[in-house]
Amino acid sequence: MAEVYDAGRALSAPALAMWTEAAARHLPADAGVVLDLGAGTGRFSSALAARLGAAVVALEPAAGMRARAGAAAGDGVAVVGARAEQLPFDAGTFGGVWASQVLHHVPDLDACAHELRRVLAPVGVVLVRGMLGDMATSWPLAPYFPGAVTIVERRYPRLAELGTRLGAAGLGVRAHERLAQVTAAGPEDLAARTALRADSALALLPDDEFAAGLATLRRDVERGRLSGPAVEVLDLVAFAPL
């Protein structure tokens, strides 16, 4: 997935600015050092460092993703290879944690939650970004890949579960907002991005099921049944020490 991730999941400059502004609203004014948990190819790392005026540690366990993050890292960004359940940092290191669409990849979410609480400063904030509500109304690809919706609903932690499990580690919900982002500029862009299969839910589908959904999407695009930009609605939840 590292080979296609940037092409399939890159955000426009306005969308990236929207999310970094949202991070700035919730993180401490002087966050100091921010952890980009599961940074992938680093699509948020440099933008967060620039907007927040903070050092960013981009933590990514996958070697392929990490190599791309390192190549793209700007000033103030350090790339580290480690897992969320065993963070190689001292207690209280981070004024903020940015966890974007990553917690469903963590095998032991309870261990991760306790590690986040350990490395978070007393006034720090953990920001969890993801699609935590109704996939059918939040994800433009839901009509084409119902099997992916089922995968998400079965495998990915939802908002209530995150609240319970992070709460058990000593992190409570401070704020919650939902933001709409433009994922693709138009129908053709949506189909091209989808074909790359850079979304983990699509990657988990059987090949024939993915091919059938993609063919239907392409037919709808060709026949003019879709118009305008593709918009996703994602949650941003701020957790702080209890």
Write the layout of secondary structure elements.
Elements: H1 5-9, H2 13-26, E1 33-37, H3 45-52, E2 55-59, H4 63-72, E3 77-80, E4 94-100, H5 109-119, E5 120-130, H6 135-138, H7 146-155, H8 159-168, E6 171-184, H9 187-195, H10 200-203, H11 207-222, E7 230-241
Parallel strand pairs: 1-2, 1-4, 2-3, 4-5
Antiparallel strand pairs: 5-7, 6-7
Helix pairs in contact: 2-3, 9-11
- What would the average pLDDT be, to the nearest integer? 96
Q: Roughly how many Å apart are the termini?
A: 37 Å
Major sheet details? 7 strands, mixed
Q: How do the strands line up in the largest sheet?
A: 3-2-1-4-5-7-6
Write out the CATH superfamily name of the domain at 5-135 and 157-183 and 233-241: Vaccinia Virus protein VP39
Proportion of strand residues? 15-25%
The total count of helices amounts to 11
Name of the top-level CATH class of the domain at 5-135 and 157-183 and 233-241 = Alpha Beta
Care to describe what's here?
The chain is α/β, with parallel strands linked by helices. It has a domain at 5-135 and 157-183 and 233-241: Vaccinia Virus protein VP39 (Rossmann fold, 3-Layer(aba) Sandwich). It contains eleven helices and seven strands. The chain has helices at residues 5-9, 13-26, 45-52, 63-72, 109-119, 135-138, 146-155, 159-168, 187-195, 200-203, 207-222, and strands spanning 33-37, 55-59, 77-80, 94-100, 120-130, 171-184, 230-241. A seven-stranded mixed β-sheet has the order 3-2-1-4-5-7-6, with helices on both faces. Helix 5 (109-119) links the parallel strand 4 and strand 5 (120-130). The longest helix is centred in the C-terminal third of the chain and has 16 residues, at 207-222. It is globular. The model has no long low-confidence stretch (mean pLDDT 96).
